[in-house]
Amino acid sequence: MGRTPRWTIPLATLTTLTLAVTIGAATAADATPSGIPSTSTAQAQLDALTVAPQGSTSGYSRDLFPHWITISGSCNTRETVLQRDGTSVVTDASCAAVSGSWYSPFDGATWYAASDVDIDHLVPLAEAWRSGANTWTTSRRQAFANDLTRPQLIAVTDDVNQAKGDQDPATWQPSVYSYRCTYAKMWIAVKYHWSLTAQASEAGALQTMLDTCTT
Question: Within 10 Å of residue 175's Cβ, how many Cβ atoms?
């Protein structure tokens, strides 16, 4: 907690970059998750969400949402998102990111070590459980936990992700105010696609965030 982002690349990292670039490299063309709807679409999706009291976490376990799964070759979901959301990401033969940079839109920090970055489940697994995923099959929960088609997975500062925990937008929002519009649209899109419910305070917070959108 309270670490200062590293804004310069240390010599050791530059050396690693030189050595690893011959092993494999992936440069992100777009560090934004796919499937973020327009404001008008997000509004329609928010209006269509079922508003209901939040369910219980009874029986919940992260193990009921298997992740990270293999996506391609030796790359799992975490490694795939690190490559997608990073800039000039270099990977080794096992697909582990050995260098690159990652901008965390939640807090505006930039990091130069993959270990400083978490892959956030935008709609937390426990939140999904309380919103209807408790009735899903394990295979459906696995698909949710590794969803690269909707804006459900994003690389962010690890401490920020841990502080967010399993909170919904009624109690946690990105500190970068200008990102709250996007955050709301992402959250709405995920809940809408996966037919998850929203409690009244959550829906109200999403509407307030959506009202900040200028486009």
Answer: 12
Q: Report pLDDT digits (tens) over 67-85.
A: 999 999 999 999 999 999 9
Rg value, the chain, Cα: 18
Q: Is residue 3 one of the residues assigned to a domain?
A: no
Our CA angle for 128, 133, 138, nearest 5°, is 120
Flag whether 6 is in a domain.
Answer: no
**CA angle (124, 129, 133) in 5-degree steps:** 115
Tens digits of per-residue pLDDT, 104-134?
A: 999 999 999 999 999 999 999 999 999 999 9
Contacts of 205 (CB under 8 A, 6+ apart): 168, 169, 170, 173
The set of residues, in sequence order, having a beta carbon less than 8 Å from that of 167 and lying 6+ positions away, is 124, 127
3-state DSSP of the chain: CCCCCCCCCCHHHHHHHHHHCCCCEECCCCCCCCCCCCHHHHHHHHHHCCECCCCCCCCCCHHHCCCCCEEECCEEHHHHHHHHHEEEEEECCCCCEEEEEEEECCCCEEECCHHHEEEEECCCHHHHHHCCHHHCCHHHHHHHHCCCCCCCEEEEEHHHHHHHCCCCCCCCCCCCHHHHHHHHHHHHHHHHHCCCCECHHHHHHHHHHHCCCCC
Residue 132 maps to a domain: yes
Residue 156 lies in a domain: yes
Q: What is the pLDDT of residues 50-62, one digit of tens each?
A: 999 999 999 999 9
